[in-house]
Amino acid sequence: MPIYLILLLWMILWSASVSGPVLPLYVESLGIGVIGWSLLATSSAVGMFLFEWLWGALADRVDRRLLMLFSVLCMSALFPLYTLRPLIPYLLILQFFSGAIGVILGPTTRAYVSDESPHQSLGFFASLWWAFLTVGRTIGPLIGTYLAELYTFTCSFYVSTVLALVLACLIVLNYPKLKPSANASTQKIQTLRPTLHTRSAGFLFLSVMFAFMTVALMRSFLPIYASEQIKMSTVEVGVLLSATSAAQLVAIPFLGWLSDKFGKRRVVGVGFALSSALFLFFLVAGTESQLFLVWVVVSLGLCASFLPLALIPEVTPNTLYGSAVGMYGSFEDLGVIIGPLVYGFVWSNFSPVLIFAVGSLAQLASALLIFAVKPQRAKN
Questions:
Q1: Range(s) of the domain holding residue 70
Q2: Given pLDDT bands bounded at 50, 70 and 90, which one contains residue 318?
């Protein structure tokens, strides 16, 4: 349980400021347009992409507890920098470091869950990982947007700093209960190439890349779309994000159970194909209530995004879980890099609503790739 509590608090503080609706709306209040926000979102994703595989590899070789503590302490120092006016021209750099340092808890907690979960129930335990993440995404936007509406946008960043320091204390207090990597003291430095030793691993990682192009759309552009095109207030956008996260929370454990019972690849592929079709309803959602309904329904379809994680043990060696999870996360980040650039281009040169058609195509590609994965238990 300590790892899930750490994950929950991390996502609350993350979603209350730099990962929820607060940052794009804060950037909009500074007079930075959609193209500028696209570059900022991409900068963070580049930081995650370049470093997540490294943190994943280190999670196999060093004490994961120290990596977690390093991450939250650095983030507690980074959050207040977003509020300093002299540093506004350097937001791209702040976003890069925020992504590079904040992403540490992703591969470390994922590797921890993979190590400690029974193989036959990995789908369910992966769903728990995503469920606690979703609870954090439900609470975080409410806190962040409420503080922004009641006080200022900058207040949410300071609250995230306080939460990061609380999280650091939580890690220290639970230090004996958290296990370091089983290979940390004995495993020699290994190449990362074995994690891609099958064609199925390549299909899996590419599928994740396309899936997270659509995740980037939901997280980075839908708040701005709701604000500018549908004229929703800051708090309404926060409530909308939290409502979708709450709906996902109900569906996630059920999907995890289904994946263990009927096959992870089948459940993921159907979920991705369904969400691809559902994205098209955004094209006709012109009111707040319509957008709310479509957003919640599409979010339920996107719940399958966590399940490819449970396929990693089927296509990679057991001794390289951390490295494989890091590479898996890097392909997630690659989708988050490509997505905002594509959506920003389509928004500016064609029509804002067409970004949802692009998201639908990306999710369809993800579904086709996941069906091409042929799981086979990888050798150690």
A1: 2-178+190-371
A2: low
